[in-house]
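Hi P.,

Sorry for the delay on this. The queue was packed all week, but I finally got your sequence through. Input first:
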Amino acid sequence: MKKEHYYRLSKYISLENIDNDGNRVVVNINTGRRTKISPETMILLSFFKEKSTISAACMVFGRGVRQKNTISSLILQLINNTILVDEGADERLIQEEVEEYLSVPRLTFAGFPSRNKNLIQNNDIVIVGIPSDIAVTSYPGTRMGPEALRAISSEHLCYESDIFTGNSKGWFNADLGRQILSGKSFVDLGDIIVKPDDSPENLFQKIGLCTDMIVSKNALPVFFGGDHSISAPIIESLARRHADLTVIHLDAHTDLASWTHGKTHHHGSFMSRVLKKAGISEVYHYGMRGFSGEPYSCKQDCAIKYRYCSTKQLDAAFLNDTWQELIPVGKTCYISLDIDILDPVFAPGVGTPVPFGLEPKKLCSILEALATKNKMVGFDIVELCPPRDVGMMTAHLAFHLTTSLLSWSWDK
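Then the structure:
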């Protein structure tokens, strides 16, 4: 006789909400699987608070062959959604099999809905955290950036959705003088799973898979780093989708250090990898200063147009009111924003601070012009290092840059 498996209710099940009919949405916080549970199914689940078998449940709840088959099918669905798990299973291992690279956020950005990746829809604005600092060369701590941004966001915004469309009601922004981001659909997918023994290759593969998944659904990706190396696989994925992709690189450093895969991988070489592998056609780099290395020479690859503007040149352009001449127009753009482009007086919470940086208002002017004059297909904000921050002022600044950039990019 074939031995029956014993199943039990997963210890990772959490209630998300209950509707007026008593239906519950529950989530397995280990796998990210969400399931809508009716009141009748809740009675069935209560049976599995203690370990039991499918046949035992069918005997208790089924009155005939057809009803027993229905109960059996329902239990199998609950098992498939990891609501019920094998009694002998190590649930920590289930995560890798079900949700290959994402974990459910403990706190979402601005209270945005958290949703299974398979439910992403056209034009959703999708938040993903990448809590990694495996590629830093100075102070660690950027792995705490995504959680810090989410925590700060809850101090400023409370997400409310329209009862008819389910989309955001938006918020009034005094700096912009208007309601922003109303009618938009937001999703916070959580974080890329970063393991202690992850190699750059493994991490990049997960980031690339996540980006591929988002853009395949015609959604708009927004990534929170993490060190700057995480931008490389994102840009590589977007370049496969957009043949004419222009990368906007805002950074105190060139990030053009030598790159040999598996040997000199670090956050100061991400642009070297992008230029060698991504297949992009154009780069605009703003904000380099100090001993950040020489800019890219187009003699290395004439197929790539590389334009750069140092902080000193930007300051002069603002003084002469010619800075808008430095902004591209009509491009398909991805923005990679390293917080250290700002002066450490305003943004001390970074791993590699460089003095004589930009002021926040100038950076906002540049970002607004870039986002409104071009087609934005995504952006990332990286190198926020909470352990180095002072009173969370850098995290607050990063939050305001994020929400403003969201509006400038997609409130059109």
